[in-house]
UniProtKB/TrEMBL annotation:
<keyword id="KW-0812">Transmembrane</keyword>
<dbReference type="InterPro" id="IPR001932">
    <property type="entry name" value="PPM-type_phosphatase-like_dom"/>
</dbReference>
<dbReference type="InterPro" id="IPR003660">
    <property type="entry name" value="HAMP_dom"/>
</dbReference>
<dbReference type="InterPro" id="IPR052016">
    <property type="entry name" value="Bact_Sigma-Reg"/>
</dbReference>
<protein>
    <submittedName>
        <fullName>SpoIIE family protein phosphatase</fullName>
    </submittedName>
</protein>
<feature type="transmembrane region" description="Helical">
    <location>
        <begin position="6"/>
        <end position="31"/>
    </location>
</feature>
<keyword id="KW-0472">Membrane</keyword>
<dbReference type="Pfam" id="PF07228">
    <property type="entry name" value="SpoIIE"/>
</dbReference>
<feature type="transmembrane region" description="Helical">
    <location>
        <begin position="310"/>
        <end position="330"/>
    </location>
</feature>
<dbReference type="InterPro" id="IPR036457">
    <property type="entry name" value="PPM-type-like_dom_sf"/>
</dbReference>
<keyword id="KW-1133">Transmembrane helix</keyword>
<keyword id="KW-0378">Hydrolase</keyword>
<dbReference type="Pfam" id="PF22673">
    <property type="entry name" value="MCP-like_PDC_1"/>
</dbReference>
<feature type="domain" description="HAMP">
    <location>
        <begin position="331"/>
        <end position="384"/>
    </location>
</feature>
<dbReference type="InterPro" id="IPR029151">
    <property type="entry name" value="Sensor-like_sf"/>
</dbReference>
<dbReference type="Pfam" id="PF00672">
    <property type="entry name" value="HAMP"/>
</dbReference>
Length: 644
């Protein structure tokens, strides 16, 4: 790693902070000013769009009302052909916002001998022209302006189109279906249309100006460009076809948002203009059209950019001045530090008699020099103490290793323990959580036909628990060999342990004596975990405790004895709480339920295999988590032919 002097780091950090502060000020000014400009632009564009949209909606609304009133009048079946023509012409003459108007009847409806009847009046050169729509080349009843309201049963605006058969100009048509009663039923009779010339709307939209190169455009409800500065787009493309032509997913999504009709102010980049731009769009109340206003970003933010550049130049000048001041201060501070650094390397090499440089500065550097002097003296003392401490630590670790070997040595660990005995099978294991532990197990013959086995758990961990465990094991074996019942054995051991027990340590114990000929087993429990009885061919069950306390605390406590008879193949599984309280990295306990489920899943359990299987299950469950308690297990199985 490349080395950098403190002077460099100090200068770099101070200047970096100064740079960040200046940059933050400039950025904050830019962002704040930009936000203000954007809000103003949004407000201005909203006013422009609302005003223009209101004027367009006013025109469209008037056209809609006229067409709907005419359609209502035509539901009167008494109108003659001449009256229908006069109504059409008079309405057009009195409504200058309408370019053309048609009353198109269903084939053969008005006149049974005529397929077409669709008089169309339109404006042409300041006068009102007339034509009768419908011939082999212009079957109006197949046109969108006729079919859509007929099928939907309601009024609708068409997409902008160039009507060659009618007015011959680009237009949009509002179509209103009308009905008449025939034989008591309402029957579709035809459609009233009112056309508006798009040239008037184009002039209205093109009059919108925002900044130097901003512009407005109008989309139909299906995205067709009704107005746009680029004449090649008007009536020729939709915003979606333009997106497909450019391969722009963003433009397609923009078109979808615009046609949703919701007012929105958003950044559109270069999707609609060669320059990065913003756009405000809003839907019209009528016709489902959308009006958008686009204005370039650089023109909108020109004043903000100019102000930010001025602030940046001022900040740069101040930054240069700060560089000069910082370099001078850093050199003055770091010169004595370099001298102390060289002295520290000498001390680190072992030269504790080095004479330190004289630094008389009355500041933190002077304090550091004094600290070096104190450090040199302390190091001499520390090295001397460390040598003695290391030797003592190694001696303690050696003694703990020997204590573990001694402790494990007093427990029977050679299996099979009695290879010449076929009446039973016993197997046990122990895993201390520390160098030495407080769990114990033992098994031995009391006489030729009675076999004693036990498991215990001393409170606490480490060396004290190990000593208490050794004392308990010794007492248990001595007292058991007197031929007493298990309850009497625990009673006498409790009396010995609780006498002058100033440390208040205690032990949980489960002790049983089995007649290896009959399988009769007498047992006592001093606050130990309930063992599990696994009958041959049956389900495992707990041997519930008697509710009697742990040993070593209460003097004069008497323990009771219970009896059960094991059949050939039956097994007793005894364990300490380190089994059920084994924990995985997630803090979950192995638990009684998991232990019982595993024992129940054992097929033809055998003592050695059972202990090993449980130990392996705990290891897999713990997933490498640190062991918190000693884990001890003993399985005692009465052997013989298993009977159902």
């Amino acid at each position: 790693m490349k080395r950098y002097p403190i002077a460099f780091k100090l200068t770099f950090l101070i200047l970096s902070c100064a740079f960040v502060i200046v940059a933050a000020i400039v950025a904050y000014n830019y962002v704040s000013s930009r936000d203000v400009i954007l809000r103003q632009a949004e407000d201005n564009s909203r006013l422009l769009v609302d005003g223009t949209a209101g004027r367009i909606d006013s025109v469209l609304s008037g056209v809609q009302k006229v067409a709907e009133n005419v359609a209502f009048s035509l539901e009167d079946a008494t109108l003659t052909t001449r009256e229908i023509l006069e109504l059409n012409r008079r309405v057009l003459a009195n409504n200058p916002e309408i370019y053309g108007m048609a009353i198109a009847f269903e084939p053969y409806f008005l006149q049974p001998d005529k397929l077409y009847f669709a008089p169309y009046y339109f404006r042409s050169g300041g006068r009102i022209g007339f034509t009768m729509l419908g011939d082999a080349k212009y079957r109006y009843f197949y046109m969108d302006w006729y079919q859509i309201p007929k099928e939907l049963g309601r009024s609708s605006w068409t997409e902008p189109y160039f009507d060659e058969g009618g007015g011959g100009v680009p237009m949009a048509t509002y179509s209103v279906p009308f009905y008449r009663t025939v034989d008591g039923n309402s029957v579709f009779a035809g459609v009233v249309t009112a056309d508006i010339s798009l040239s008037r709307l184009q002039e209205l939209v093109n009059s919108i100006r925002l900044y130097d190169s901003g512009f407005a455009f109008l989309l139909s409800r299906h995205g067709t460009f009704i107005t746009h500065p680029d004449k090649n787009l008007v009536m020729n493309q939709t915003i979606f076809s333009l997106a497909e032509e450019r391969g722009s997913r963003e433009l397609r999504e923009l078109g979808q948002r615009m046609l949703s009709g919701e007012a929105a102010f958003t950044s559109v980049g270069t999707l609609l203009s060669p320059k990065a731009s913003y756009m405000f769009s809003d839907g019209l109340q009528n016709a489902g059209w959308t009006l958008g206003v686009v204005f370039p970003r650089d023109e909108m933010l020109a004043d903000v950019v100019h102000l930010s550049r001025s602030m940046l130049l001022i900040g740069a000048a101040g930054f240069v001045l700060l560089v000069l001041v910082t370099v001078g201060i850093a050199r003055r501070i770091t010169r004595p530090l370099c001298e102390l650094s060289a002295s520290a390397r000498e001390i680190a090499s072992g030269n504790l008699d080095l004479r330190l440089p004289e630094i008389r500065a009355n500041d933190e550097v002077g304090d550091l020099a004094e600290s070096f002097k104190y450090m040199k003296t302390s190091l001499k003392e520390f090295i001397h103490d460390l040598t003695a401490t290391t030797a003592a630590k190694e001696r303690i670790e050696s003694e703990l290793r020997i204590a573990r070997e001694i402790q494990m040595g007093i427990l029977p660990k050679l299996f099979p323990a009695f290879p010449d005995r076929r009446e039973f099978e016993v197997f046990a294991s122990i895993e201390p959580a520390k160098e030495v532990g407080g769990d114990l197990y033992d098994f031995f013959f009391v006489d030729d036909t009675h076999f004693c086995f036990l498991v215990g758990d001393v409170s606490g961990k480490g060396v004290p628990a190990a000593f208490f465990m050794a004392v308990t094991k010794t007492l248990l074996k001595v007292v058991s060999e007197r031929g007493l019942d298990p309850g009497d054995i625990l009673t006498r051991v409790n009396a010995d342990l609780s006498s002058e027990n100033e440390s208040c340590m205690f032990v949980t114990l489960f002790l049983a004596i089995m007649d290896i000929e009959s399988g009769e087993t007498r047992f006592a429990n001093a606050g130990h975990n309930p063992p599990v009885f696994l009958p041959c061919g049956g389900k495992p069950e707990w041997i519930r405790p008697f509710g009697e306390p742990v040993a070593g605390i209460m003097e004069g406590m008497r323990y009771s004895t219970k009896t059960m008879t094991l059949k050939p193949g039956d097994l007793l599984f005894i364990y300490t709480d380190g089994v059920t309280e084994a924990m995985n990295p997630d803090g979950e306990l192995f638990g009684d339920d998991r232990l019982m489920a595993m024992l129940a899943a054992e097929n033809e359990p055998f003592a050695p295999k059972l202990v090993k299987d449980v130990g392996e299950a705990i290891r897999v469950f713990a997933k490498g988590a640190e062991q918190s308690d000693d884990i001890t297990m003993l399985a005692m199985q009465f052997m013989g032919k298993c009977t159902p």
